[in-house]
Write a structure and sequence with these properties.
about 230 residues, mainly alpha, Transferase(Phosphotransferase), domain 1, two-stranded antiparallel sheet, two-stranded antiparallel ribbon, globular
Length: about 230
């Protein structure tokens, strides 16, 4: 088995309680590349979370290199019936999988869901947690008041990140580009959610590379948020 000596990404963020956008970017990029690699082979992970991202602290390619683990809930998309290769991404699945704070709303709604968008939602929750220091919601279903507020905000055109921070009477400190990216990843309607390829091509990655590194300052010094 491969060895990942840096522990879980969960431990990395728990130590700092939150990461700067610049510090989070390599992990974000690694997760996107790993999920695109899987999707190109017809595999959807369906269990993305902080604990399932391992850090390769002593890897020759750098301390921010990651490995995705725990494919117990993964599924394989059927190949396209027509010629030309590829996989059927529009087929519906009905089982629930993953950890509750990361599950996409359509997975919990019970009407069937397309598999690739659920990884985008879970990745959005993961990255939000990395840079905010807390989860955006407990579970994406009507019984969670945070999710109800998200539904109302998206219907009225309020940005998801801004709306989440407003629930706690705080101002969102994310850059404009990151707010734009996470808002699109956390779109409740999966038809309006970014694809994983669109996430990979988003301008935030180019923008954050040019920022000065101001360290991983701690915003919430008195409580572990996870």
């Amino acid at each position: 088995m491969e060895l990942a000596t840096g522990g879980e990404l969960f431990d990395r963020v728990a130590e700092s309680e939150k990461l700067t956008e610049r510090a989070a970017a390599p992990y974000f990029r690694g997760m996107v590349e790993g999920l695109l690699h899987c999707l190109a082979r017809g595999v959807v992970h369906r269990h993305i979370k902080l604990e399932d991202v391992m850090l390769c602290a002593e890897d020759s390619q750098g301390p921010t290199r990651i490995k995705l683990i725990d494919f117990g809930f993964a599924l394989c998309l059927p190949p396209k019936a027509a010629g030309g290769g590829g996989f059927e991404e529009d087929c519906l699945f009905y089982d629930k999988s993953g950890s509750k704070s990361y599950r996409a709303p359509e997975m919990l709604a019970g009407g069937g869901y397309r598999a690739p968008p659920v990884d985008v939602w879970a990745l959005g929750v993961t990255v939000f947690s990395l840079v905010a220091g807390f989860f955006p919601l407990d579970e994406a279903k009507p019984s969670d008041w945070r999710f109800q507020r998200m539904v109302e905000n998206q219907r009225s055109g309020v940005g998801t990140c801004e709306g989440i921070y407003a629930m706690y009477q705080r101002q969102c400190a994310f850059s404009t580009e990151l707010r734009e990216l996470l808002d699109a990843m956390l779109a409740i309607d999966p038809a309006r959610r970014l694809t994983m390829q669109q996430v990979a091509e988003h301008r935030w990655f180019a923008t954050v590379q040019g920022e000065a590194d101001d360290g991983d300052e701690v915003m919430y010094p008195v409580a572990r948020r996870f």
